[in-house]
Every structure is written in structure tokens, then in C-alpha cells.
Amino acid sequence: MDGSSSPDVSRDVEVRRAYSADASGLMLIPDGVVRATSPAHVAALLAESSATRTPVTPAGGQTSTTGASISDRGILLSLRAMQRIIDIDPVARVARVEPGVLVGDLKRACAEHNLLFAPDPTSEEECTIGGAIACNASGARSLRYGPTRAHVRALSVALADGSIVELRRTSLEKNTVGYLLAHDPVDWFVGSEGTLGVVVAAELALLPLPEQVIGLAIPFSSEANALRFVVAARNSMHVHARCLEFFDVLALEIARVTEDSDSWARGAQALVYVEEVPPAEQEPALDDWLSLAESFGALVDDVRVFAGETALRDARRMRHAVPAQMNERGARRRDFGGRKVSTDWAVPYPLLEHAIGLARALANEAGIEQAVIYGHAGNGHPHQNFIASDAEHLRVVERVVEATLREVIALGGTVAAEHGIGKIKRKWLSMQLSPLQVRAMRALKRELDPSDILAPGNVL
Ligand SMILES: Cc1cc2nc3c(=O)[nH]c(=O)nc-3n(C[C@H](O)[C@H](O)[C@H](O)COP(=O)(O)OP(=O)(O)OC[C@H]3O[C@@H](n4cnc5c(N)ncnc54)[C@H](O)[C@@H]3O)c2cc1C
After folding, report:
1. 18-33, pLDDT tens digit by residue?
2. Is residue 3's pLDDT more than 80?
3. In the Cβ-directed half-sphere of 238, how many Cα atoms lie within 13 Å?
4. Ligand 1: residues within 6 Å at CB?
5. Which of 7, 98, 427, 455 is deepest in the core (most CB within 10 A)?
6. What is the pLDDT of residue 8?
7. Is the per-residue pLDDT at 4 higher than 90?
8. What is the residue with the minimal CA distance to atom 23 of ligand 1?
9. Domain count, the chain
10. How many Cβ atoms are within 10 Å of 264's Cβ, its own excluded?
């Protein structure tokens, strides 16, 4: 498709600019934009694009932090207009959706049936189901429920050649036919970042909405104690955490502003936010939480309790404020060649304190300001957010991040636990995967997208 001949492709510069940025801080202006309205529309575009070898990059809410949903090559294919919740079946506990539905909208629709769509990326009010599937997004509550992959039952995928395949997980408990990678093609597409096919519909598994959830924001006078508390809480038989989120002293400062509570926990050096979901017919283990926290020196007089839907939403807003505030700070440096640099590494959770210590030491050695560190400590998965003020500072920050990632890999960790690789983190893929693993990925990519049109520059 040269584009000028296709009535679907918008070449208007304002439209192209409107789709040129995501949360990575990069800006890549596509040659054209297509706003898909149906699976057939997507399939026709892909068939034509394969024939003419025109690159196509799918995009949902464009909240990617890795430049995965933007491109300056070929067509940017927006799926946002395909935003129908097709149906919610409360008996089978499944939802069938188009890819452009916002995760937050689906969660609210499910809650009306007393059901929970469990994946909860912090960006849930801005990101789509298609994007969450393509990134295998997770969130604070993935500690209990697992990432998006665990909740995808079936997918309709438009392949690069314009065909549409229907893929459904088996419910077999035993299977010895062939290689594992061939057992469940749904898994090829979850986490494939738009490089293997375009998700045009999904069937998602739902859970019963928990009857009782209590949130606790627990301040600690030392970071080390907060991190040790997280490990103890994960290992405890007496408390039932569905999330264990860490805020360092800088992230806590942002939380104070969001809470409009300047004096809250002034003696604290860190905070852990937990959500307790007791087993059916049991009361929340509040006393157990408090005594566990106290044994790690928590400032128990400053603990805040979030009970009820509205209060839990407030807690979520407090948590979301940290990345949102850091994105704003990063955006202010864009004109100077700087931006926010966010890590997404994870280590086995008992090693988190050690890993954060190494990360801080590397930043100190390089003489740069410490990152704001916050996030999914229960999964050994913090985010370090640096603000690089200009291009030179950015180079130093990237060197520090790379050195940190080498330590993380040595500890058995990963360079990207939930945001994917996209374009920004591609250079680190080979740090974690062997040449054999990368060749196996390339073979799958060649098989599914022989003209190499899908999401060029992402992952491989
Ligand atoms: C403030 C903030 C907080 C965040 N918090 C989290 C978090 O807690 N957990 C987390 O996992 N992530 C988080 N993210 C990252 C991001 O929001 C998630 O990865 C999200 O799932 C992306 O969804 P999206 O609709 O915005 O996808 P996009 O950014 O539009 O696209 C992401 C990738 O998916 C592909 N894609 C999109 N739609 C389709 C489709 N229909 N078919 C095939 N490929 C498709 C794109 O090509 C791209 O590779 C955060 C981002 C921000 C800005």
C-alpha cells in the first residue's frame, strides 16, 4: 500500500502527530494512521500491507513505556475504536471483548456482575485490553492473581497475511503431544508486543469479586526494614496479601502530596502498601498485619487503613501518582534532550533488598541523583525512575541502568518484568536470552510474519 491510494489511511500531519508519542518519552511520527473499526478491516489492511511490505504497528492506549506503540515506519494501526464489551457471561465467568476496551472500563462492567477481571496495570484507566495482552501487563495485584497471560482464555488474531485465526486454550490437565511451545498458541501472542499478529477479540477469564479487601499503608523508619517486612509478609501463613507495594522516601513524598497530607509519617524513610484479602468466611487479619509490621519497626501510629471501594480507589490514586508525577517531570526535560528513564527489572523477591542496594551504589558511583524507587516489591519488582535532565545526563543514566541490569541478571533476575522490551529495551534482550533462544524467537516471527511487516523495531 503506498497509502495515498487507500481511503483508510490518514496522511494528515496533525493526525499522524496525535499518534506519535507514548509514555516512553520518544516521538516517532508514522507515515500514516489507520483507525480500525472491525476485524475484517484489520485483516484487509494486513493483507494489503504484506503484499506491499508496508510496516504496520498496532496501538491501543499508547501507554507503553518502551516506545512499542509508536513508529516512524509505515502505518500506525489504532485499535481504540474497537471498544465493545461483546458480552459478560456470569455463569461461565468469562468476558468477550474487542481489543480497544479500556481495562478500567472492563473491570467496572465485570464488578456489576460481582466478578473481577484481575489484571491491574497502574495505567488501567488509559490502557486497552489489546495492549495489556500484547505486553502481558501485570500490576500490584499480580502478586495474588498472576499477570494478564493467566486470564486469557481465547484470542482472535489477525495474522500478517490477512487471515484471522481463532485460538483457544485447552482445559487438558495432561498432554504429551509435541513440544511445549506448540501446545498453546495463545501464549505466542500474549506478550508479543504487536510483532506476531493483531489481537482483534479476546475471551477473558473472570474471578468472583472478593467480599472483603482492606488496604494498609504502613510507614517504616528504614528502607531495609520495609523490604524485610515484605519478604516476611510473603512468607507468612497468617496474613493474606494480594499486593505488597513499596515506596522509597522520594516516592512517599509524592504520595503525601496526593494524600494532601504534608505531615503524614514525617519520620518515615519508606512505606509499604498492602491489601489483605482473607479466605472466605474469615475476618481480615488486621492484628496480624500490625504485629508483623511492628516487629520490623513500623511507625504503627501512622498506619493508614483503606476500607471500602472508595477508599481503595484513593489508595490506587496515591500509587498511580508516583509514575504519573515522574512522567510529567520527564516530559518537562524533553526539549533539552532528557526524559524519564524507568527500569522494569525484577529479581527473586528475597533478593530485592540486596539488588536495590547494588542499584543505589551504582548511581552514587556515577555521581547522579538517586532514582525514585517504588513498586511491586512482593514480586521482587521495583521501578527505578530517573529524570535525565539533558542528553549528556541521559547517557550517564543509561550507563548506570545497564550496569544495574548486569547485576540483576547475575542475581537470576530479568531486565523487563512487565513493560516489555519495545524499542528502548531491545539492546538488553541479549543480556538475558542466549543466541539459541533469540534464534527460536526469530524462527517463530519468520513463520508468522514472513514479510516482516508487524511492529518493526519491537523486541527483535
Ligand atoms: C503511568 C503508567 C503506569 C503503568 N503501569 C503499569 C503497570 O502497573 N503494569 C504494567 O504491566 N504496565 C504498566 N504500564 C505500561 C503500559 O500501560 C502497559 O503495558 C499497557 O498494558 C499497555 O496498554 P496500551 O493499550 O496502552 O498499549 P500500547 O501502549 O498502545 O501498546 C503496547 C504494545 O502492545 C501492542 N498492541 C496494542 N494493541 C494491540 C493489539 N490489539 N494487538 C496486538 N498488539 C497490540 C503495541 O504494538 C505495543 O507493542 C504503565 C504505563 C504508564 C504510563
Report:
1. 999 998 888 999 999 9
2. no
3. 10
4. 22-23, 57-65, 68-69, 79, 99, 121-123, 127-128, 130-132, 134-135, 137-139, 193-194, 198-199, 323-324, 327, 418-419, 455, 458
5. 455
6. 87
7. no
8. 131
9. 2
10. 16
